[in-house]
């Protein structure tokens, strides 16, 4: 089995948290060692950040709950949503700790204010798994995420390989995610690694760029509307960091009758709405993440943490969250467009019927 690549301090932290998490297990309560996930009891809470990033509600939460039921059937899963309110999420953590939950899977609403919740859980010896959004400056057992740097690479390569024809430099608007998020920074780093040569040569000119607070589509729409006003609609393409910011971009373009004419690149999560946009020609591509695989990974690692096991083959990296080097599982991503839409169906994310419902475009839906 692959061993966790981490510092001695980090490994000791994971072990301490994981062993303490067994307090909810029936065998441990009787003074016996828990040797099987079937012996675990208690409650694990999964805290989601918002409802606007639909993947968390539609896929990640259900995927984690289903996998926990299969791996540790006697452990109850409680899924809660902060609805975009970081303060509400901190209250949810505090409540979970006071109720004596056995573990927390945290998709932080705002990484920059997650420390208080992590410290509170750590003081109570409750293992926290940081899921997708990085939780910073506090004790974390594991970090799981689809590699954001690879996301940016995939987005940048697709734009580079599908540059629209223009009379001069491509006038590009860039819409980033929430300012300060590691995910935002790493996605942009990946994009830049591919595109810097085109920026330097003058083939692409960035005419607008800004962060959409909270990755909120409404904020992205406002930014693109401002960009269109600033440039008098002289925008040749938009590079949006996820499907939410892409949908906000499309809404802004629709307001100027430019949707489907100005290509929207980027995208991330393969939301059902985004897949329909791709088939309708309003969005060029999205980056597909296999959410059930990651949800199952979180269930496996939470079970390990509760049992004090630290040899999962899922661990393939580390992540510095400001508190320590956290054992990390980084999952691969794939760029998907209209021609490769079948990959979404093959992975079981959506059926062809679900994707094509209401779509009038020809091709995949014929």
Separation of termini?
46 Å
Helix content: 40-55%
**Assembly state (oligomeric):** single chain
Number of helices: 13
Rough outline? globular
Q: Determine the mean pLDDT.
A: 90
> Using DSSP, what is the number of strands?
13
Textual characterization of the structure:
The structure is a single chain. The protein is α/β, with parallel strands linked by helices and 366 residues long. 42% of the residues lie in helices and 18% in strands. The strands form 3 sheets. The protein has a 7-stranded mixed sheet with strand order 2-1-3-4-5-12-11, sandwiched between helices. It has a 4-stranded parallel sheet with strand order 7-6-8-9, with helices on both faces. β6 (170-176), α7 and β7 form a beta-alpha-beta unit. α1 (8-20) crosses α11, α3 (54-71) packs across α11 (291-307) and α6 packs parallel to α7 (182-201). The longest helix has 20 residues, at 182-201. It starts with 7 loop residues before the first helix and ends in a 10-residue tail after the last helix. Residues 1-31 have low confidence and may be disordered.
